[in-house]
Amino acid sequence: MSLLVTAGQRHDSPQFQPVLEGIRVPRIGAGRPRTKPDKVRADRAYSSRANRAYLRRRGVACTIPEKSDQIRNRKSSAPEAADRPSSTRPTTKSATRWNAGSTG
């Protein structure tokens, strides 16, 4: 476990990397303490690109939900976003018939 004390109104996300770097799990017997967790679970406050890149560089698996605005911005900034339809769900003949009948 790692603990970092900051001022009362400091944001949490900038402290993400220093807290992870402070982890030291002693090994049984001799050897350096383990510093890389197997997996990190965090809430949406830690879903920034920098935090995810830091975890990828260190080879740490993570479970961090994404904020809806980040998902929307990623999809709209993709170069192929303008070419694809708004829905990627395949339409069937019966679904098209049902939609056509309900628009009137």
TrEMBL record:
Positions of region (Disordered) = 64-104
The identity of this protein, by name, is Transposase
Mark out the compositionally biased spans (Polar residues). 85-104
Q: Which Pfam families match?
A: DDE_Tnp_1
Annotated Transposase IS4-like domain residues: 2-82
